[in-house]
Amino acid sequence: MVTQVDPGDAPARRWVLHVDLDQFIAAVEVLRRPELAGLPVVVGGRGDPTERAVVSTASYEAREHGVHSGMPLRLAARKCPDAVFLPVDAPVYDAASAEVMATLKAVPGAVVQVLGWDEAFVGIETDDPWAVARSIQAAVLERTDLHCSVGVGDSTVRAKIATDFGKPRGVFELTRDNWSEVMGHRPTTALWGVGSRIAARLAAHGIQTVHDLATADEAVLVSEFGPSMGPHYKRLGRGTGTTTVDDTPWVARAHGRETTYQTDLVDPREISDALGLLAEQVVEDIRREERACMRVHLKVRFAPFFTTTRIRKLAEPTFDAAVIAATALDLLVGLGDDRPIRLLGVRAEMVPPEGGYDPPRTVGRGGPPAR
DNA sequence: TCTGGGGTCCTAGGACCC
DNA sequence: TCTGGGGTCCTAGGACCC
């Protein structure tokens, strides 16, 4: 099922809501350890801040000390020595996430597109999207004890961006009526899908703000980013990206495992064993889904920090871990680089289902559950 | 401080075929 | 001797998100 926002001038009746749990992982951990409430909590890796790992989520108390997602745990420990460090416990977050999503799907008339553990789009036809947003917050809190913020928009991009302005525990509305006022003066990185690299390329053409991008010469964007991404970025600048909320169950395109080693790998035997282990994990995962591996992706990070990937299509789709491991090893040897290895990843690109993927590939952010 | 692990999608360019 | 277009398939690499 798909809902479409009315693009015309009539008052919109269909809305896109973006629901985003507040500090989701940290909040779930506090729920099962109430004594942690109000303390700086940092969840990441195996919970040992002396290891090579990064922060998955920090509680607001920890964020006040400058700790944020993606930061190395060691640095987080320096910035906030009193923080409680906890290991990532994915099954617990899966369960909590499922409760949240079930709550959203129970909203009458809602079409729910899951974006990750802690966020989803909700497409809905209503006269009062704020009332729906408030009722969603209340229902989620009642059922899961978790707080969320809601972005209300007339497109997915606007709803998604609106949520940040509502955090924590709030609601914010972003539509074509206030888009320019709220977003126009902000840097292009404020947009969903524009990171530092794209922003730098835009800046080289004098495009600094969202307003600059919205009014940019499309020919310039096409020459810089190509016929597909160029117009896509212009649409982002205007906030008029896709308007559909699609609850088609997501079918993964690929599945992989990667590991950062606590001590760098140098011994060839050790390296080959590591690839074998990763391949076995990948096969176990894809066998569960009954999806054979079609291509092998090798990812390797040499110390100190050079990362590269290699791909090879297999002659035959396979579930054979030995074939996958041997292919990955062959790709690695082909690099002819004997520096110490800090990370290895093996990814299986899987045979597409009959008739291809639905939804098909699209420009911009497609919608996989990111976790 | 020394940078995780899980994903998706786009573009460029070479090889190859007609 | 040099070289047309058009198409597909494949790999490498970049960029982004949570």
From TrEMBL:
<dbReference type="InterPro" id="IPR050116">
    <property type="entry name" value="DNA_polymerase-Y"/>
</dbReference>
<comment type="similarity">
    <text>Belongs to the DNA polymerase type-Y family.</text>
</comment>
<dbReference type="InterPro" id="IPR017961">
    <property type="entry name" value="DNA_pol_Y-fam_little_finger"/>
</dbReference>
<dbReference type="InterPro" id="IPR043502">
    <property type="entry name" value="DNA/RNA_pol_sf"/>
</dbReference>
<dbReference type="InterPro" id="IPR001126">
    <property type="entry name" value="UmuC"/>
</dbReference>
<comment type="function">
    <text>Poorly processive, error-prone DNA polymerase involved in untargeted mutagenesis. Copies undamaged DNA at stalled replication forks, which arise in vivo from mismatched or misaligned primer ends. These misaligned primers can be extended by PolIV. Exhibits no 3'-5' exonuclease (proofreading) activity. May be involved in translesional synthesis, in conjunction with the beta clamp from PolIII.</text>
</comment>
<dbReference type="InterPro" id="IPR036775">
    <property type="entry name" value="DNA_pol_Y-fam_lit_finger_sf"/>
</dbReference>
<dbReference type="Pfam" id="PF00817">
    <property type="entry name" value="IMS"/>
</dbReference>
<feature type="domain" description="UmuC">
    <location>
        <begin position="16"/>
        <end position="195"/>
    </location>
</feature>
<dbReference type="Pfam" id="PF11799">
    <property type="entry name" value="IMS_C"/>
</dbReference>
<feature type="region of interest" description="Disordered">
    <location>
        <begin position="352"/>
        <end position="371"/>
    </location>
</feature>
<dbReference type="InterPro" id="IPR022880">
    <property type="entry name" value="DNApol_IV"/>
</dbReference>
<protein>
    <submittedName>
        <fullName>DNA polymerase IV</fullName>
    </submittedName>
</protein>
<dbReference type="InterPro" id="IPR043128">
    <property type="entry name" value="Rev_trsase/Diguanyl_cyclase"/>
</dbReference>
